[in-house]
Write a structure and sequence with these properties.
Elements lengths: L14 H21 L7 E5 L5 H10 L4 E6 L2 H11 L7 E5 L14 E5 L8 H11 L5 E8 L4 E3 L31 H8 L2 E8 L2 E2 L2 H4 L6 H11 L4 H16 L4 E3 L2 E8 L1
Parallel strand pairs: 1-2, 1-4, 2-3, 4-5
Antiparallel strand pairs: 5-10, 6-9, 7-10, 8-9
The structure holds S-adenosylmethionine (SAM).
């Protein structure tokens, strides 16, 4: 699979998919960022910012004396994000088309780096962790949050969610060859090996049990999952059958969905 092709839709059409991540993970992520020592006046780098909801929040937190550089390698995504956030973005928040692999070329100094659900989309995530380490001054903080995609499940079991991912449960070392949807499992190890002093780590998994929560996997976001499934060899007919099963589970008041697990690690240089 080509490294420069991101798995999901980006830009305006992809907003719905990223919106789900914001709804499910932002409260937990924000608590952890505050706990990690995010303060007014800090200079923050947000790598793989997507639709920028967390970048906006980071900018509010660091305030006028701080600075936030939010990068994404998709021009389409950055244009959509600038458009989406223009009414709220303060002047100390800058969105830039820039790759995670090129952060050493940034001219801004940073003392706090944050990234979520991007390393598990890269073939060389450890290279990016090493670059973050190089970029930070002594005492600088890195908060990374990455998926353990194979932890997704439903009960009762349906084929459209969780099942096709179980073979990825025990990852071999894909570094340099392919992306690892379970990179969250390795995050603590790789950050520690790179030299970070680990201050905090946790594992979080949203449990969708109300109809409103489960509907997050219906609606427009479903198209993203469909495209992903088709690209991974599922036939259109199979997908339609699976999607119907998922709809039945959503409609079943007793049905429950475990979204991806997210492993969050706070390191200090
Ligand atoms: C799953 S989204 C996560 C977005 C956001 N961090 C969040 O948690 O909602 C991953 C984002 O990483 C971006 N991305 C993928 N490869 C990248 C790279 N090499 N450098 C920078 N951004 C990248 C994608 O365009 C996408 O916006």
């Amino acid at each position: 699979m080509r490294e420069d092709i991101y798995d999901f839709e980006v830009g305006k059409k992809g907003q719905e998919g990223l919106d789900i991540l914001d709804i499910m993970f932002n409260p937990h992520t924000k608590r952890c960022l505050e706990h990690a020592g995010l303060k007014p006046g800090m200079r923050v780098l947000d790598i793989g910012c997507g639709r920028g909801a967390m970048s906006l929040w980071l900018a509010q937190k660091v305030g006028v004396t701080g600075n936030v550089i939010a990068i994404d390698n998709s021009e389409n995504q950055i244009n959509a994000t600038i458009d989406l956030t223009k009414a709220q973005a303060p002047k100390w928040l800058h969105f830039k088309v820039h790759s995670a692999y090129d952060i050493e070329k940034l001219t801004e100094s940073v003392d706090f780096v944050y990234c979520r659900f991007i390393l598990h989309h890269l073939n060389n995530p450890t290279q990016v962790i090493e670059k973050v380490y190089e970029l930070l001054p002594k005492g600088g903080i890195f908060v990374a949050e990455e998926g353990v995609v194979s932890a997704a499940f439903t009960y009762p079991k349906v084929a459209a969610w969780g099942q096709e991912r179980t073979d990825a449960r025990y990852p071999h070392d894909t570094e340099g060859e392919d992306r690892d949807g379970n990179f969250g499992m390795k995050l603590h190890h790789q950050m520690k090996q790179t030299g970070f002093e680990i201050h905090y780590a946790d594992l979080y998994q949203p449990l969708l049990y109300t109809n409103e929560q489960k509907q997050l996997l219906g609606g427009p976001a479903r198209e993203g999952y469909k495209q992903y499934a088709l690209a991974h060899g599922i036939s259109e007919k199979e997908w339609e059958k699976n999607a119907k099963e998922l709809d039945n589970l959503i409609a079943n008041p007793a049905g429950v969905i475990g979204f991806y697990q997210s492993c969050l690690v706070v390191g200090r240089k």
